[in-house]
Design goal:
The structure is a homodimer. The first copy, chain A, contains 18 helices and twelve strands. The first copy, chain A, is α/β, with parallel strands linked by helices. In chain A, the strands form three sheets. Chain A has an eight-stranded mixed beta sheet with strand order 1-2-6-3-9-10-11-12, with helices on both faces. A two-stranded parallel sheet of chain A has the order 4-5. A two-stranded antiparallel sheet of chain A has the order 7-8. Chains A, B: Belongs to the AB hydrolase superfamily. MetX family.
Chain lengths: ~500, ~500
């Protein structure tokens, strides 16, 4: 069986492409031939590598999808193989005025996709703007137009954390995304082709500016609250900072006001892997094959950072196992890759497969870079020429930490600069919630954020730490504790 | 300047290969052409990607090295571009009897490379066997034959942690390595070609078995101590377990007796990235170009796991910066990748460049897999049919935890099984040293190991935790505290 699989790999031309599967060059063919000759003379059969073969199989699926769709005249033309959600499942606002950008000349025009839940009150004063993490769409919860569960399904609805009996919830796809909002895969009106990597560098502040263009269009002057987790927490903080008079409350869950070097390193590794896929082609892959292998590998690295060691130990500890009986019969020839851990199945799930076919690789690059660049310390904000929409008002309650929360004995290194940067948030009630097992936005950063806000004069900081073993993903999973804290804070 | 760089990228054919740089297929040329046509019609110039261009530059360097060496008749034939240390700088023992393997049929014969420091006592009772981490050679410290500093230079010598006035220190290159000991890049005597991925799966126990074949050859019956850090600590524990009568003391620094799912996940990600490089070619790259890009990317991920968040914050926190003034002049066109962080320079160092040219990719795959498979819990050992060289002796001092070290209140999930597995180590004095900022071998695992050893009846467990911010790399850097603990324990 081992032999026949291998035979198939070599006999079947499509399966013989592998790895970052692009049509093999003559050099690769020569190597393949060498490997075949090698087997003929070797006492040992050639091994098989299911984890590598997976990439080739995916490439073949994409190619055959292409072939079948090109036989349909209505589907002619270069069509990216990742499928956007149906445009009928969300609303789109087209902003036809320039959007100022932090690092680049203004974007001449843009679309922003959004979905809503609940009912806008006549006074338009019950609006919650919900911000997404890196790769999420506007589909935070199911709607009549799209019954599929959303990424925060259990947190939105009657009686839930964002109670739709009371609130009108708006969620947008972020600027730079690929689910209806303008991003690198969108058509550049100047060229009628996708922007690709000519798309300008964007910041978290730019994402928020685009959201407020939508709010202006909807006639919403003031938000009841701005709510976000992970990168959404960055946006939530940035929104409260840019528009302090237009936001009632800010919620930051497992976020940060200053990206840490270790989280930047994790994202750098993901982008490096993605950009090394030849299919990426410096971002110009929209007329070719997308870098699905690079995106899959990047996603694997991300997945590792989303959970915690303790949880994996509980979940997989007893399943890390030696070879099974069927494997030991051919153990002589089993290459390292063929020893299957339950863990590997988790890292190479169907959801991961979906992701690397549906999500746009350039969006990952631009949005993860925007996260890296996020830094609300005062020197950084000054260097960027950023300032809030209105001058910082004097703190209304207290200009110093409260008696219950004196300044920390061992302040984080950047605390004073961060406190200075966060001054425009001094008068906004803020919920800061962190998770002790989070390795991507570690709990130290949550404490730093709460400390800096208090040092900036904010006396209405609600701060919670959660235990548990779910790490960064806690915000998606712990409805009881995360949801409960939000519900209590919003009342 | 931005434009001219780009022009160069497209005009100069070698630089135009990029990413996992293999000679571009016609498909890639078509895309390149599309990108060029794109520029002609676009208002926006094409961006440049220095981090991707680096891979192409390296490929060109390898190709030109090949070209120049092939003009030298003495250097003809396929020569892997990674350079082994000169064989004259270490000693080699050729074992011409079969070596039993945990997961495969015996290896018919093998070489093992080693270096020594100090003087063997007439009674041959002053020997310390030093085990290496994943990618290190036998060159732990400088020698008359090789004056280059070794990987543990400051820990070996007169008056140092391994005091050469007292001890005779032996360090070997591990089985599966590429620095003189037999591994996947070695010639398979059955075929006269490199094993490549026909090399059998190896275990930590197999590495130790190979070392003891060397000790037999050298006439060394009993070791004064077995010492190792990281993967070396796994070998050190395995040695004490397999040959309890032949080892006086065991030192385990930042190791584990049971690989954790999160560390397995980190190594899985590294292997996935490496194996996705088309140059890897299912392991048969010895006649072609090595997967230098995949190895570089894998090394980047590893580097992230070797240090800790706090240290990076101190080192880079203030250098994470927005665009410099020179960058802002062309900020409109600056792609995300061109925003330089000091951090990136650290992840793409010259040492990393050296590594991806000198180290054998298949060795990384086999050895990191051996780490994944390491599990000294009793069910795992039983499943593998492993047993120590002699029956487990009854504990000599006490069969229960001491009064100073009662059983832990919240035992780690696998503690009882691990304690049962570690019974053969019950009578060996052991130093377990862990680092609180280590994210690869977290301090929880150090506590688990010490607890399990005590639960197994070992009353001579010395256990220390180090603070500091160096993470897993502490064992390479903290001469004072790591070295001090070892020196004290060995006396």
């Amino acid at each position: 069986m081992f032999h026949s699989t291998k035979q198939q790999l070599f006999v079947n031309p499509p399966a013989a492409t592998h790895g970052y599967a692009r049509p093999s060059s003559s050099g690769a063919h020569r190597l393949k031939l060498a490997a075949r000759l090698y087997t003929a003379t070797s006492a040992r059969p050639l091994p098989s590598f299911p984890c590598v073969a997976q990439h080739a199989a995916r490439e073949n699926r994409i190619l055959s999808l292409r072939a079948s769709s090109s036989s349909d005249p209505s589907a002619s033309g270069p069509e990216p193989p990742y499928a956007r959600p149906s445009p009928s499942s969300y609303q789109t606002y087209h902003h036809n005025k320039p959007l100022p950008l932090t690092y680049a000349e203004p974007l001449p025009e843009f679309d922003i996709a959004y979905e809503t839940w609940g009912t806008l009150s006549p006074a338009r004063d019950n609006v919650i703007l919900l911000h997404t993490g890196l790769s999420a769409s506007s589909h935070a919860a199911s709607t009549p137009e799209n019954s599929a569960p959303g990424w925060w399904e259990k947190f939105i609805g009657p009686g839930r954390a964002l109670d739709t009996r009371q609130f009108f919830v708006i969620c947008t796809n972020v600027l730079g995304g690929c689910y209806g909002t303008t991003g690198p895969s969108s058509i550049d009106p100047a060229t009628s082709k996708p922007y690709a990597t000519t798309f300008p560098v964007i910041s978290i502040f730019d994402m928020v500016r685009a959201q407020f263009a939508l709010l202006d269009h909807l006639g919403i002057v003031k938000l009841y609250a701005s709510v976000g987790s992970s990168m959404g927490a960055m946006q939530s903080l940035a929104a409260g900072w840019m528009f302090p008079e237009r936001i009632g409350k800010v919620v930051s869950i497992s976020g940060t006001a200053r990206s840490s070097p270790s989280s930047i390193a994790m994202r750098f590794a993901q982008r490096s892997v993605l950009m090394a896929d030849p299919n990426w082609n410096e971002g110009f892959y929209y007329e070719g094959l997308p870098p699905h292998t690079g995106l899959k590998l990047a996603r694997q690295i991300a997945t590792i950072t989303y959970r915690s060691g303790p949880e994996w130990d509980i979940r997989f500890g007893r399943q890390v196992r030696p070879l099974s009986s069927s494997e030991t019969t051919e153990k002589q020839h089993t290459p390292p890759c063929a020893l299957i851990f339950s863990l590997r199945r988790t890292l190479t799930t169907r959801r991961g497969e979906q992701f690397c076919l549906k999500y746009d690789a350039n969006s990952l690059i631009y949005i993860s870079k925007a996260m890296d660049l996020f830094d609300m310390t005062e020197p950084s904000l000054v260097a960027l020429g950023l300032s809030p929409a209105i001058p910082t008002p004097p703190p209304t309650v207290s200009s110093s930490p409260t008696r219950a929360h004196p300044p920390p004995a061992n302040p984080a290194p950047h605390l004073p600069e961060l406190a200075a940067g966060l001054r425009p948030l001094a008068n906004t009630p803020i919920l800061v919630l962190g998770v002790q097992s989070d390795i991507l936005f570690p709990v130290d950063q949550q404490r730093e954020l709460a400390d800096a806000l208090r040092m900036a004069g904010n006396s209405r900081v609600s701060y919670y730490e959660l235990g548990g073993v779910w790490g960064h993903d806690t915000f998606l999973l712990d409805e009881q504790n995360v949801g409960g804290a939000i519900r209590g804070f919003l009342l």
